[in-house]
Specification:
The chain is of the alpha+beta class. It has five helices and 13 strands. Strands 5-6-7-8-11-9 form a six-stranded mixed beta sheet.
Length: about 290
């Protein structure tokens, strides 16, 4: 499951601490019924109360994405992008990082290792957070190899408070950074699952650019193109339902493990769980099958 929990600082959002703890409580309630997601990818886990969510949820393994002070290799250095990194100071650029990436991975399965990358390029208010990507390797019983899972949160649209051209350019550069990070960091031949808040809703150009740079297949697109292949308990309207949301999950088969989406559903949408964020949770159930 991927879930942007809206764990923003109190100066930006009031009352979010209690909501984070309640999310943890609801995850624990799912666990009591045997219905909790095996892995939860969190975005916007900025506040200290994110630990209340983690403690309440009961997940035994936890990994954290880039912290406030993390600075990483510029994957695009050789290409010298025509992008001035500080242009709109009144909208938060050049103020430094006020928060971490807000990325967390909670897992029922042991985590072998964690790698992460803080995006170098950003636009507007998004620059106040050290947005980026994290990649974890988890052990799943019965599989011949570990499964690698990435979590990311990319530059917003209008919420960044800068012109469209500016935030689109930043998003495109982050898209390239994510692609280079996965290429450099993942284990060749390992099965891969990627999720997070990609900020591509109603943005076909952003989505197409993303898919031209990434190796993975988006679940909602895969299911839409194969009617009946997935137990879809979520609204898929229009010709491109993957553009109806910011939150996506993708996958890539491994050399020794086949990854197949089986079910898709919304969580924390007011049905079985209350609405506790400005996003719903997005849950995909995969079949992971050894090959041969």
């Amino acid at each position: 499951m991927t879930y942007n929990v809206e764990g923003l600082p109190s100066l930006v959002r009031k009352g979010r601490g209690a909501a984070l703890k309640r999310i943890g409580y609801e995850l624990a309630a799912m666990r009591a019924k045997g219905k909790e997601p095996d892995v939860v990818l969190i975005q916007e886990g900025f506040r200290d109360e994110i630990w209340d969510l983690i403690d309440e949820s009961g997940y035994p393994y936890v990994a954290r994405g880039p912290r406030k002070g993390q600075r990483d290799e510029n994957y695009l250095k050789s290409e010298k992008p025509d992008f001035r990194r500080v242009k709109y100071r009144r909208q938060g650029e050049g103020w430094g990082k006020w928060g971490s990436s807000g990325l967390w991975v909670l897992s029922n399965h042991p985590i072998d290792w964690v790698k992460s990358h803080a995006y170098r390029y950003c636009a507007g208010l998004d620059c106040l957070a050290n947005k980026g990507v994290m990649l974890v390797s988890i052990q799943v019983a019965g599989l011949p190899t570990s499964v690698e899972i990435a979590d990311t949160h990319m530059n917003s649209h209008g919420a960044s408070k800068v012109p469209r051209k500016r935030y689109n350019e930043a998003h495109a550069l982050q898209t390239q950074e994510l692609g280079r990070f996965l290429q450099a960091s993942r284990t060749p031949g390992a099965p891969l699952i990627v999720g997070g808040d990609f900020n591509v809703r109603r943005s076909p150009d952003r989505f197409d650019k993303m898919m031209s740079d990434y190796p993975f297949v988006v679940v909602s697109r895969w299911c839409h193109e194969r009617p009946g292949a997935c137990d879809t308990q979520i609204s898929y309207t229009g010709e491109a339902p993957w553009l109806n949301t910011q939150d996506l999950i993708g996958f890539l088969n491994g050399d020794a493990v086949e990854v197949t989406p089986k079910a898709v559903e919304a969580t924390f949408d007011g049905a079985d769980e209350p609405v506790l964020s400005d996003h719903n949770g997005y849950k995909v159930t995969f079949s992971l099958t050894p090959k041969g």
